[in-house]
Amino acid sequence: MRILRQTTAGTSSANTPVKRVNSDSETLQVTARDTFTVEPTNSDVYDVFEVHPQQGIDVILPFGQEIVVKGGDRLGIECTAPAAVNCRAKFWGEE
Question: How far apart are CA 79 and CA 87, in angstroms?
């Protein structure tokens, strides 16, 4: 699995991000995509992880080492399995 910056959106379906704290009055400024038929163009690779196919992985970045995504930029997770697999991913972020 790779965490990377993407320079294009590819072709995909819209996903609806959900706030963790519903009482916050601010509107989310983030968008999300899934079910890609054309992959986005990848750029910088931030990190690479080996993931056991039956166990998965939780990646929690240490304080001060979080990935900062500027407005208008894209952050992606790429599953690099050698065979067809299902992949489920979750991002937690702060705006």
Answer: 7
